[in-house]
Structure formats: C-alpha cells, structure tokens
Design brief:
Blueprint (H helix, E strand, L loop, with lengths): L10 E8 L5 H4 L6 H15 L9 E6 L3 E8 L4 H13 L3 H4 L4 E4 H12 L11 H15 L5 H20 L9 H12 L7 E5 L3 H11 L5 E6 L2 H10 L3 E4 L3 H4 L5 E4 L10 H10 L5 E5 L16 E5 H10 L5 H26 L1 H28 L3 H26 L2 H15 L9 H28 L3
Parallel strand pairs: 5-6, 5-8, 6-7, 8-9, 9-10
Antiparallel strand pairs: 1-3, 1-4, 2-3
Helix pairs in contact: 5-7, 5-14, 7-14, 8-9, 8-13, 15-16, 15-18, 16-17
Length: 469
C-alpha cells in the first residue's frame, strides 16, 4: 500500500458573501438558521466524499445578518469551485448568479480575514463586539457537528486571541455607532421627539435588547415587546419599563405604534404588505417608521413603497454607521499591524504542520524495517549462529534497505531533478567529508547536530501526540 501525501499540505479556504459584496436581498437567500448549520455541515462533508481528497475536510459556517461564510481546511486544491457550487446548490441559487458576489480567500488571506472579522474590522459597525460571540457560536456548533479538526480549531483559537489583543491594545471600539444607535438617529429625523411616540419591538434577541436600551433612554410614550415566546418577551419588556404582547396580536394592534423595530429568526416575512396597508389606513396616514434588522427580512420589501411608511433595512442603517468610522482610522491601522504579525505566525505554524505526516511516515517505515531485521537476527542467534556475523549481517541489511529508496530515486532521476537530489543526499549523508577529521572537528559536528536531533525528536513527539487532536 502506497501512502499519499499532499504536496501542498492542508489548504485553508474561506468563501462567503457579506454586506460589502451583496445586498440584503441576496444575503437572506444564503443565510443559515442556527438549527440548519449542523445538518448543512454533514451534507458538506458528504459532498466531499466523492472527491479525490485524501481526508475529509474540516468546515465551519458563520451566518449573521451581514455575512454568510464557509471556512474550510482540505487537502483538495480544487476546493474553491466545489465549495461555491455546494453553497449555491444547497440554497437553490444558480452558481452564475451567486459567484459574482462571492469572495474566495485561500491560505493567508483566509487567516487574515478571520482575524479581521473577529476583531470587528470587517463589520458594518467598526469595532463592534457582537460578531466575536457569533463566531464563537459558529465554532461551537461545528465542533458539536464533528466538522472541526486540528487546523480550523487552531485557526479559530488564534483568531479569538488576536481579537482579544486588538480590543485590548487599540481604541477600535471607542465611540462606535451601533446599529441600535443608528436606528434612533433615523427615527429622530422623522419624529421631533421620540418621547411622544409609541415603540414596538418584534423579537426578543440580543439585537432587540440593544435597540430597546437605546430607545428607552429617550423615554418613549410607550414601549412594547412582541415575541413568539411570551416569557422571553415579558422579560425584555420588563427590563426597560415596557409591556409585552403576544405576536399573534400584531395584525390587530400594528396601527397603534409609530416606530416598529423587528429582528426575529423567522425564515419568512412576518409583516406583509396588506397588514401594513390596513395599519396606515387606521392611522389616517400618520407616518410609521419601520426598521427591519433581520436577515432573512421580517418585513416584505414592498412595504417600503407605501407613501406613509419609512422602511429601513440593515443595509440602510449602514450608511449612518459608516459616518462614525472615519474618526477611528488610527486605531484601524494599529489593529491591522497586529493582525499582519499574527497572520505570519500562523502561516509558519501551518508550514511546519505540513511536514509532520511525512516525518511520521518515515519514522514508521524505518521502525518496521528495524523490527523485521531485529526479528531475523534473533532467530539466527537462537539457532546458534556467530553473534558477530549476525550483527554484521543485520547492519548490512538494514543499511541496504534504508538507502534503497534514495538510491532508486537517484537512478531514475535526470537533469535538474538528479542534480537537486545529489545535493540533498550530500547533505543527508555528509558526502565529501574527510574520514580523518580531527577530534575537534567531530566535536563541532556533534554540537551542530545536537539541536537538529532535538528538533527531530520534538517534531516526532508532536506528531505522535497530535494525531487525536
């Protein structure tokens, strides 16, 4: 049986779309609800089983309102097109429609991207911290699905360390304008005083809590939370001195509210055009300010065409958010410097890892040869053969077998390949050195060899110890 090794080692790849490359209308079509991620990862690994990869790929899916990304580690060099094809097929989107919006980042670019995302440098809200928690959730989900291995696990652990370093040593998050703050600013453009308005929050997740906190600071006339789970909705409403209501009451009560902010995990819109038309009519065309922070969207896009409705999506709020980003460019430059250093460190680790399987295989094969020759020698000694002759035969046979591979390679090489092999072999076996070297020369060589031997020993130890990580 011939053992195969990838000439290029493990290949890292990140493919995805985000708020820089695709509108919310496309992002919502490729998003993954949390409960779908584990089965999706299983399907992704299954799709790889028919390919010419030596081993199954590692994978993790990060899906938020601003991005859907697939992080991969595979020994298949053609994984880019396959990953894009899988993503388009899974969501029922033509590859040619999706491809123009997809970024595919190999090796160090994938590492740099992960570091920047976790540090808040690639977010719509520069320096925001929510993405770090979302990335940790993605990693935990991939681990539970059995899709994470040595390479991606190491990548993400270093990613979290880099994010901590960036946030701890720079002012990247200082004075950031959050999506919640941006929603308040937009509302203030439409209503003179938020304190005179009735505000409805649909959903009870982290984003709704942030929005409720910002609006509550302006002491609105009424604050109500509608949620599928009544207990959770009541908890959020009580925190901010508001009331809760069943989500089923929304169609009958929508007209009561001047400001509606929605962010649920629903895969389909929960507020349709007809319901809003009826609410506008009941309000006698008094304006309604609506913010849809969900991806997929909670409010049908056609609602935005109504004259008395001001509908904003997560992308619309991005414009306001970016206005506050310019003042933090010095912190961005500092963060980028940290990230570049850590990317280089990770790539060094990745390069070192690529030779571990080869070294492990060399040790395994050499040990098999040693055991075979030792067993043969023991039989000869048990038969009564001369010990000196047995040792001589053992050393000769073991030497011949160990140099058989290199000799065969040299005999079958030609041109530049042969010259390169000769140069390599000269280094391996110290050809050309005088057998009459002085004692001091031997001591010098021994001193130089000691670190190398230690390095090989350490690598071998790491190889044997890392196989189950």
């Amino acid at each position: 049986m011939t053992t195969k090794f990838s000439l290029h080692g493990m290949q890292l790849l990140t493919i995805g779309i985000n708020h820089h490359t695709a509108p919310v209308a496309l992002r919502e079509r490729v998003s993954f609800p949390l409960e779908q991620i584990k089965p999706a990862l299983a399907l992704f690994k299954e799709a790889w089983s028919g390919r010419r990869a030596i081993s199954a790929p590692e994978a993790a899916i990060l899906s938020t309102c601003n991005r859907t990304e697939l992080y991969c580690a595979s020994d298949d060099n053609a994984s880019r097109d396959a990953a894009i094809h899988w993503l388009s097929q899974y969501h029922g989107i033509r590859a040619e429609d999706l491809a123009p919006h997809v970024y595919a980042l190999p090796q160090s670019e994938a590492v740099r991207h992960a570091f920047r995302v976790a540090s808040g440098l690639d977010s719509m809200v520069l320096g925001e911290t929510q993405i770090l928690g979302q990335m940790k959730t993605a990693v935990r989900t991939a681990t539970e699905a059995g899709a994470l291995g040595t390479y991606l696990n190491q990548l993400f652990q270093r990613t979290f360390a880099v994010a901590k370093e960036v946030r701890g040593t720079t002012e990247i998050g200082a004075q950031s304008v959050s999506m919640a703050a941006a929603a308040v600013r937009l509302a203030q453009r439409i209503f003179e005083k938020i304190s005179s308005q009735r505000v409805l929050f649909i959903g009870a997740g982290e984003m709704i809590e942030l929005c409720a906190a910002h609006f509550a600071a302006h002491q609105p006339r009424e604050l109500v939370v509608a949620n599928r789970t009544a207990e959770r909705g009541h908890y959020v409403a009580e925190r901010f001195g508001g009331n809760s209501m069943p989500l089923s009451d929304l169609p009958a009560r929508m007209h009561e509210f001047d400001i509606i902010v929605s962010c649920t995990a629903s895969t389909l819109p929960i507020i349709g055009l007809g319901a809003v038309e009826r609410a506008v009519k009941a309000r006698r065309h008094r304006p309604i300010f609506m913010v849809d922070l969900a991806v997929p969207r909670d409010i049908e896009p056609e609602v935005g065409k109504l004259e008395d409705v001001f509908l904003y999506t997560v992308d619309d709020l991005g414009t306001i958010v970016r206005e506050g980003n310019a003042s933090r460019q010095a912190a961005v430059a500092q963060a980028e410097t940290i990230i570049e250093t850590r990317v280089a460190n990770f790539m060094q680790w990745l390069d070192a890892r690529s030779i571990v399987p080869v070294i492990r295989h060399m040790h395994t094969q050499a040990d098999l040869l040693r055991r075979a020759e030792l067993e043969r020698a023991r039989k000869l000694l048990a038969r009564g053969d001369d010990p000196a002759a047995v040792l001589e035969a053992l050393s000769q046979s073991l030497t011949n077998k160990l140099i058989h591979g290199p000799t065969h390679a040299l005999n079958n090489a030609s041109g530049e390949d042969r010259d390169s092999l000769i140069e390599l072999m000269s280094g391996f076996y110290r050809h050309g050195q005088s057998g009459q070297a002085s004692q001091s020369g031997r001591e010098a060589r021994d001193t130089q060899a000691a670190p190398a031997a230690s390095s090989v020993a350490n690598t071998t130890s790491e190889s044997s110890g890392s196989s189950d990580r």
